[in-house]
Write a structure and sequence with these properties.
Blueprint lengths: L1 H11 L22 E13 L7 E18 L25 E8 L2 H11 L5 E6 L6 H15 L4 E6 L9 H10 L1 H13 L5 E7 L1 H17 L6 E7 L5 H11 L5 E6 L4 H9 L17 H7 L2 E4 L13 H4 L1 H11 L14 E3 L2 E4 L12 E4 L1 H6 L11
Parallel strand pairs: 1-5, 4-5, 4-6, 6-7, 7-8, 8-9, 11-12
Antiparallel strand pairs: 1-2, 2-3, 9-12, 10-11
Helix pairs in contact: 1-8, 3-11, 4-6, 5-6, 6-7
Length: 392
């Protein structure tokens, strides 16, 4: 176990150690052609008392609500899928992410006011839950990048829970996700039941998928069902025991929301997480075509987007969903927009940017591409026998 923890530290250690601290202190002005991302932030973290960090990785006494405005550099000075972290303070808005403003909100009433003011005509909301080893600024800037690069026509809401931002705090982070279940459930419920809101997408990454599924499971049990306005649940590289996910799924009692899972069999972070968790498969690393999972996924109607053949932008292949321009734009222009991933003719597939999307063996046509989509509904529509790929 100790060796596995050390290996996890070596794999997950990123370049954040060279970043300056206090990157959230607001700058006076953005670059003339920079983009502004306004987001609502709900957090169960403890306040830091420092305007440059705002919140720590420790657990707070309740839910804090704030409105944030993030400046993203002009397109010519950045690459889609990347967060341009400040190299020194104050940041240069022409080339780096910068904070333009932070406004604490006094309770649910002011948060509803923000939501009403920032809802697009689509009346869509995108709620993001980060994963393990995320400091507060990591969560804020990563979600700003996703909201911007995806092109999602939705009001961005970040739910950030207490993570110490250390590869050695896996156990603390996991318990902090449990600690935040009630707050997450209440936050999602209030947004989803707001009469101004018409469509909610929940997107959770890594350990955040555990929190999201636990919160939804608890909501379904406590309140009888999930709100009808929750149309999409996206689990990206979920660090979630497959047996636990099956239990959570059953508790949702045939949800109306469409579930999409991003997996990658070369995800090194989940490979080590699997070792730490007793060698039980992690949901974000499964092969949807394997006999162990094919029939169950098809029965549940869960769409799986396998990114295994897609080159990752990080050393451990754990953030492909956000770092690939094609994938992050797929999230915003297709999934959040309420469209299916697959084309009306899956034997041809669909080209999104430079990546072709295939549908496994549907209609007898195998498409070799960086991204493979397992879509049970499309397979049934085109007559593939149930369980064919599972050898049944």
């Amino acid at each position: 176990m100790r060796i596995a923890v050390v290996m996890l530290a070596c794999v997950l250690a990123g370049g954040c150690s060279n970043r300056p601290t206090g990157v959230l202190a607001p700058v006076e002005a953005a670059a003339p052609d920079a983009t502004r991302v306004d987001m609502l932030v709900a957090t169960t973290r403890a306040p830091s008392g420092d305007p440059g960090t705002l919140y720590t990785g420790e657990r707070g006494p309740g839910v804090s609500l704030s409105a944030f405005t993030v400046s993203i550099p002009p397109e010519q000075n950045r690459r889609v899928g990347e967060v341009q972290w400040p190299q020194r303070l104050p940041p240069d808005p022409e080339r780096e992410f910068a904070m333009l403003g932070v406004k604490p909100l006094a309770g649910v009433g002011e948060a509803r006011g923000w939501l009403k003011q920032n809802l697009p005509k689509s009346r869509r909301v995108l709620i993001f839950v980060h994963g393990f080893n995320n400091r507060f600024e990591d969560a804020v800037y990563r979600f700003a990048q996703i909201a911007h690069d995806s092109g999602a026509n939705a009001a961005p809401v970040l739910f950030t829970w207490p993570s110490r931002g250390s590869v050695f705090a896996y156990g603390f982070d996991r318990e902090s996700a449990n600690f935040s279940r009630d707050a997450f459930e209440e936050t999602v419920w209030r947004i989803a039941k707001d009469p101004e809101v018409g469509d909610v997408t929940i997107m959770a990454h890594s350990m955040g998928a555990w929190l999201a599924m636990e919160g939804l499971r608890q909501m379904a049990i406590r309140r009888g069902e999930l709100p009808a306005s929750i149309h999409n649940v996206i689990l990206a590289s979920p660090d979630l025991d497959v047996d636990v996910f099956a239990m959570q799924w059953r508790a949702l009692n045939r949800p109306q929301a469409r579930f999409t899972i991003f997996t990658s069999q070369d995800d090194r972070a989940l490979r080590l997480s699997r070792r730490l968790a007793g060698n039980v498969d992690r949901l974000g690393q499964i092969d949807p075509e394997s006999p162990d999972y094919y029939a169950r996924l098809e029965k549940a109607g869960i769409v799986v987007i396998d990114l295994s053949a897609l080159r990752g932008g990080d050393a451990f292949n754990h953030n492909k969903f956000a770092e690939s321009p094609d994938v992050v734009q797929l999230i915003g222009t297709r999934l959040v927009a309420g469209q299916t991933v697959t084309d009306s003719d899956p034997s041809v597939g669909e080209r999104i940017g430079a990546a072709a999307i295939g549908v496994g063996q549907t209609a007898g046509a195998a498409i070799t591409a960086p991204i493979t989509v397992f879509d049970p509904a499309m397979r049934r529509a085109y007559g593939q026998p149930s369980g064919a790929a599972a050898g049944q």
